[in-house]
Known about the structure:
By secondary structure, this protein is of the alpha/beta class. 33% of the residues lie in helices and 17% in strands. It has helices spanning 114-119, 179-196, 211-226, 248-253, 256-265, 271-274, 278-298, 305-319, 323-328, 335-341, 373-393, 418-428, 447-457, 482-498; strands at 46-56, 59-73, 79-90, 101-105, 124-126, 140-142, 152-157, 165-166, 204-209, 233-237, 349-350, 358-359, 433-439, 467-472.
Amino acid sequence: MNKYLALLTLTCGIALQSVAQNGPPANPAGKNTMPISKSRILATDSSVVTHHEVTIKGQKIAYTATTGTMPIWDEEGRPAAGVFYTFYERDGIADRSSRPLVISFNGGPGTPSVWMELGYTGPRLLNADDEGYPIQPYGIRENPNSILDVADIVYVDPVNTGYSRPVSKDIATAQFFGVNQDIKYLAEWINTFVTRKDRWASPKFLIGESYGTTRVSGLALELQDAQWMYLNGVILVSPTDLGIERSGPVQSALKLPYFTATAWFHGMLPADLQKKDLTDVLPEVEDFTINELIPAMSRGGFIDDATRKKIATKIARYSGLNEKVVNESNLDVSYELFWKELLRDKGFTVGRLDSRYKGIDRQAGGTSPDYNAELTSWLHEFTPAINIYLRDELKYKTDLKYNMFGSVWPWDDKNNHTGENLRQAIAENPYLHLLIQSGYYDGACDYFNAKYSLWQLDPSGRLKGRLKWEGYKSGHMLYLRKNDLATATENLRTFIKESLPKPGQAAKY
């Protein structure tokens, strides 16, 4: 499995919990259908409705939250799994036919939607400092930047993430755990959700983060071709490679601009570069990467000595590393070595998903960090926040464990053509727009690889007017910085509004 698919790798060994099948509970009075259970039993069809208010950009907004599960059906029409979701609808909307619906996924592929729900777009925000680091007491507060003012939002947890589970341990999980299997069953689930919530007329948007970008890129075409459901927008936050080919010298070279960004943040660049703003430094490095580094690395061991010296000197200059380390790596410094080496003399490693974070290893020697400093920090704050929120505020009571990481192995990563699927979906649908958001300090789904994907997504150049990329001075979860949260959510509002057709505007070329 490649390093992009393996983002947020599920190595914590959480065992698959045995769950039992429950049919839809009786609900003659239209009341909440949340079963009260003292065991770890999945209800495949459940819901709890609560009512709330939030102040967004100075405006008080009343909303309804529906938390529960909806089934995945097998070929005989029986529940095979229950998928957990949280749905936020703004109150007081008389006609939802023009009200945008945002369908939100995270990644892993074995993580739930907690990250963007409590960190980015939802009406509640986890307690953290202004840079996203944990603080106590754990908990949640209002999110003044939520996009609930302009769109209703549903957060979806794929099977074995959050509270989502197969109906029993005898269910074959291969039908869920794979690039294309994941897309297929989630498209069916979205159909059920949209039908039950009467949202077929609404403009629809998909947003995915990390592996969720693979998921929503594939869903864009699957929804059109298999569910006949057409979208207005797809948002990719910290995207994977989307199955777009990059190997050899291209793959080796594209990580350098990320190295530069991280070295700049930690003050490790030469003084003339360090005194510039990051966004003034990166274009120079990007130009070097495309026009000099890739051609030089294409020559491999047959590069002449003078050129090799010149290239090594520039890599060292732009990465904050010693030229000796660059040469010992044959000009191709691995991500792992970079995370270990950049601050080695200072006694720290840097994080993978967000290289602003620092870690401390058992020993200074070695070629990779002992642990992901950023991920343990995020689990530190998100885990208590979601457990407090679901039980205390949204009133969803269950003894199931909320899986921050659920077992989805073995994962079938073959035939990943999600980038091409997204291109085709955009080509087929003149309404469909794409926004990519990246953090400069993300070393797992780095920003320059995201740019490369954007460039390769549409070889014809005929669709580029509907494709956009944005960068932020943050990491994989770019919204954890207070300043970036405000900017990124405002950009989402703009994207949603600009992706809606004008009255009477037909979907045609």
